[in-house]
Each structure stands twice: as C-alpha cells, then as structure tokens.
Write a structure and sequence with these properties.
alpha/beta; Hypothetical Protein Aq_1857, Chain: A; 4-stranded mixed sheet; 3-stranded mixed sheet
C-alpha cells in the first residue's frame, strides 16, 4: 500500500520546507519506546537513504525506512491545530492499542 497525507499535512510540509530553504520531503519512522512499545518518529528529509521507500501524495514526498514500513503501511498523516497546539496526527490501521497518554502504541 502506501503512506498518505491530508491536505493540511501536505500544506504544512510544503510551507516548512520552503521556510527552511531545503529538504526533499517528510521522513516518517517508528522507534521502540513508551509503555505500549512503539512511537512515531517524524522529521524533514534532507537526503534519501539508499533503501528508503518513497511515497508521493499531494506533491509531497514521504520517506520511510524498510523496517518501519510494515507498521506504517496504510497510515494517513494529518496536521491539526487545536487552540495554541499544533501537531502531526496519524490514522494508522495497524495500531491495536495505544497507551493512556497517547505517546505510544502496539501493533
């Protein structure tokens, strides 16, 4: 399958890359941490690794390492603003449970 972006997430990535003056797109991954086992790692990609999987949605490239992809396959990335807070959010069909604080998840 793939990784997709909402219009809000794509706009955020494009505007942030423009303000940075560099970058190829969004880098998305998974790390082992938290009380439920895994958490998302998100950054801006300045270079592609040789084994990266690359997806493009709404004109924005998303780079994913092969080890993270099975846990991210089918995920939609959104960018939301609530009051003074703003953050990327993930609709991941592979998540079986999330911790109470929302910082980690289980697949």
């Amino acid at each position: 399958m793939s990784i997709s972006l909402t219009a809000s997430a794509a706009d955020r990535v494009r505007s942030h890359l423009a303000s940075r003056g560099r970058g190829l797109g969004l880098r998305l991954g998974i790390k082992t941490t938290g009380c439920s086992g895994f958490s998302y790692v998100i950054d801006y990609a300045d270079a592609a690794a040789p084994n990266d999987l690359v997806f493009e949605d709404q004109g924005v490239k998303v780079f994913v390492d092969p080890a993270s992809f099975p846990m991210l396959d089918g995920t939609q990335v959104d960018f939301v603003r609530k009051g003074l807070n703003e953050a990327f959010q993930f609709a991941n069909p592979n998540v079986k449970a999330e911790c109470g604080c929302g910082e980690s998840f289980t697949v």
